[in-house]
Design a protein that fits this description.
The structure is a single chain. By secondary structure, this protein is α+β, with helices and mostly antiparallel strands. It is about 20% helix and about 30% strand. It has 3 helices and 11 strands. The strands form 3 sheets. It has a 5-stranded antiparallel beta sheet with strand order 5-6-4-8-9, with no helix packed on it. It has a 3-stranded mixed beta sheet with strand order 7-1-10, with no helix packed on it.
């Protein structure tokens, strides 16, 4: 009988300890900072298609999830590797290293805010560039042309127009309303622009021309 009482006492003690510990675990989980992963896909498009492409006209509409059929959604578009991006985090006031009116932000800076570069040379691969662990807040994603290595099949380069920087605010709700994009379920971004072949405008009738430099 005494042995049974001891077992019962131990069981009651365990239940009391568990009751005390569980709220602490729940509170720790609830206060853990939410983070989001970004999957940045670089899209190159034909000039004419770029002019008339509008995301809002597409079905299904872009909603932050991965676009399964790039060719269908962007018509002449293709996803490419070798494009570099820099990610700037928005902070209050002027404490950041880049001010809101800096040309590098392409007019996406917000007055009264400043920005810190937190990821540089994020370079796309064939399926994009994955950046994990962005805390909730505002960010500006800027294409870094100088750090990009992309050259097309016919020696095209992304030279005609630089992609407009993208400003996002995290967290972002998933389209089905089931919660936010997260580290496990990345938010997909699709910055786009055009490409052109380098022009060779040397005068080949001039015997004194330097034919080795086509810049």
């Amino acid at each position: 009988m005494r042995k049974g009482n001891k077992v019962l006492s131990l069981l009651l003690a365990f239940i009391m300890i568990f009751a005390l510990v569980t709220p602490a675990i729940s509170q720790a989980a609830s206060t853990e900072e939410h983070k989001t992963a970004l999957q940045i896909h670089k899209i190159i498009m034909d000039d004419a298609e770029m002019e008339k492409h509008k995301d809002e006209d597409k079905t299904p509409k872009y909603d932050g999830t991965q676009i399964e059929n790039i060719q269908e959604y962007f018509t002449s578009g293709k996803e490419v590797a070798g494009i570099a991006f820099d990610i700037y985090q928005e902070v209050e006031g002027t404490a950041g290293s880049v001010q809101s009116n800096d040309p590098i932000l392409g007019g996406k800076g917000v007055e009264g805010k400043s920005y810190n570069l937190i990821h540089d040379n994020v370079i796309t691969e064939a399926s994009g560039a994955l950046t994990k662990g962005l805390l909730d807040g505002a960010y500006i994603i800027v294409e870094d042309k100088e750090a990009s290595t992309y050259i097309g099949d016919d020696q095209e380069s992304v030279t005609k127009s630089k992609a407009v920087p993208v400003r996002i605010e995290l967290p972002m709700t998933k389209p089905d309303g089931s919660g936010y994009f997260s580290v496990e379920e990345p938010l997909h971004l699709y910055p786009k622009n055009t490409e052109e072949k380098p022009e060779i405008d040397k005068n080949f009738a001039d015997p004194g021309a330097d034919y080795t430099n086509y810049d």
